[in-house]
Amino acid sequence: MSDSSHILNDEAFKDISPQKLKIMVDMLNDMTGKPMEQKVRVLFSYGVKMKQKGLQFTKQESSLIIDSMKSNLSPTDRNKLDMVVTMMEMM
Q1: Between 20 and 30 A from 34 (CA), which of 12, 27, 41, 73?
Q2: Four-residue CA torsion sign, 41, 66, 91, 27
Q3: What separation, in Å, do the N-terminal and C-terminal C-alpha atoms of the chain show?
Q4: Closest residue by Cα to residue 17 from 66, 58, 69, 52
Q5: What digits encode the pLDDT tens for the residues 34-71?
Q6: Under 8 Å CB-to-CB from 70, ≥6 apart: which residues?
Q7: Which superkingdom heads the taxonomic lineage of this protein's source (predicted)?
Q8: Secondary structure letter of residue 6 according to DSSP
Q9: Whole-number pLDDT of residue 4
Q10: Whole-prediction pTM value?
Q11: What are phi and psi for residue 34, nearest 5 degrees?
Q12: What string of DSSP letters covers 75-89?
């Protein structure tokens, strides 16, 4: 599992549905070891898949996932990620 797996222990994910949990774990695993640009593509792709299935993360779940992604990013890459997140929220 990815280095981001520690977020699964957060209280926000205590009652997460098994379907959302699987998607999140798959997404985190798909992001492991990839450069920022590829992580953004993975995030966007999973966002589209979730919308197609009628699923969405809560604001708290989303914030924890994004914060985990930002933890080792440069300020420039953080800004890029914020832009992508804003675009995804508009979808």
Answers
A1: 12
A2: positive
A3: 29
A4: 58
A5: 888 898 889 889 988 999 999 988 888 888 888 888 87
A6: 78, 81
A7: Bacteria
A8: G
A9: 55
A10: 0.73
A11: -95, 150
A12: HHHHHHHHHHHHHHH
